[in-house]
Amino acid sequence: MSSNLTTISVLAVALYAAGAHAEDAAAPMFSFSGFGTLGLVHSSEDKADFTGSVLKPHGAGYSRNWSAEVDSRIAAQVTANLTPQLSAVLQVISEQNADNSYRPQVEWANVKYQFTPDFSVRVGRAVQPAFLLSETRKVAYTYPWVRPPMEVYHLLPVTANDGLDMSYRLHIGEWVNTLQAQVGRKNTELINNGGIAEARNSWGISNTTEYGPLTTRIAYQKSHVTVASMNSLFNAFRQFGPQGDLIADKYDPDAKAYTSLGIGASYEPGNWFVMGEWGGVNTHSFIGKRSAWYVSGGFRVGEFTPYVTYAQVRADNLSDPGLTVSALPPFLAGEATGLNTALNSILRTKIAQNTLTIGGRWDFNKNTALKLQFDHIRIGAGSTGALVNLQPGFQLGGKVNVFSATLDFVF
Hints:
The protein is of the alpha+beta class. 16% of the residues lie in helices and 49% in strands. The protein is built from five helices and 19 strands. The strands form two sheets. A 16-stranded antiparallel beta barrel has the order 1-5-6-7-8-9-10-11-12-13-14-15-16-17-18-19. A two-stranded antiparallel ribbon has the order 2-3.
C-alpha cells in the first residue's frame, strides 16, 4: 500500500503542475485515451477453471460454462505534457482481481523527463519490459490473438514495477536500438486469500532492436520474492530436524532470488507476420524452474487475419518425496504425511503444458476488432497446467479445449 501511495503522490504533484502550466500557457495540456475488451470463454474442463492469468481466481469451466471474466477489461489513461521535456501518465484498469472484485487498479502512474530526444528517465509505476509485448500486454487490440501465449507470459505474470527506469535510444543507419534499465519493487495480491507476493530489490535490463519490419528483444530481470503466507507450512517442516530444514530451504519463498530471461523476435513485412519468444525463470522456491517458448504466424487478407500458434512450457520437479515417514514414530507420522501432501499439492500447480492455437481477427470497424480463437491444451503428466479452482475429481494431465470470442477496442 505504501508504494502505491508514494507512486500516486508523485504523479499528483506532476498533474497539479501540469494544470498550473496549462493555465499559464492557455493551451490544453492533457490527453485522454483508453482501451478495453469484451470477451466470452468456454472450457471443456468442468472440474477446474481456465483463466487468462494465474492471478485470477475464477474463469470458464467449473465456475461458469461461459465466462466473461477471463479476458474482459476496461482501461483509461490520462497523459499530461507539462513541458516539452516533462510529462506524466496515469493508467487505471478495471478487470477481475485476485479477490474476485473489479475494483480499478493503477497500472501505470509515473513522471517522465526527456533529457534528450533519445534519453529519458521515469519515476513511479511503469511497465516491466520482460517480453516483446510488455508495453501493450493488456491492450488486446494491438496484437492478433485473443491473449498473448500464456505459456511464456505466465512466467512473469506481474506487468508493472514501482521505482525508476531509464531508456536510451541509439540510431545506427536504419537500425534503432533501445536500451532500458529499471530498479524498484512491487507487491502482488495472490488468489484464494494467498496473501501478498513481495518483490524487493528488483532490477532489470532489456534491449530492443528495430530494423524495418524486424524487431528483437532480450530482457533479464531479477527480484527477491517473499510469500509470507507460505511461512507456516515450511516452518512446520523445520520442526522435523535436518531433513525438514533441507525441504524448507529448497522451497520456502522467503526473500528468494527470482530471475528471468526472455528472448524474442517478430517480423512483419506487410500482409503476413511471424514471431516467437523463449523465456526461462529460476525462482529457488516452490515456484520452481521453468522454460517456455512459442512461435506464431498469420497473414492478412483485407480485414481478416487468420493465425496459428504453438506454445510449450516445461517445469522442473512436480512432486517431492518429502519427509521420510517410515523413519518417524507413529505420533509424528500423521503430521509428516499431511505436510508431504500439502507440499505436493503446491508443486503440481507448476504449469507444464503445450497448446495449439488457431484463430482469426476481423477488423470490421475503425479501432475495433472481433477475434475468435480455439486452443487445444495438453497438460503435462503430474501437472494441473494453468488451470485454477480445482475441484474433487480433477485429473492431473489430460486435455482441455478452450473457445474464446472477444471484441477489442481502443479510443
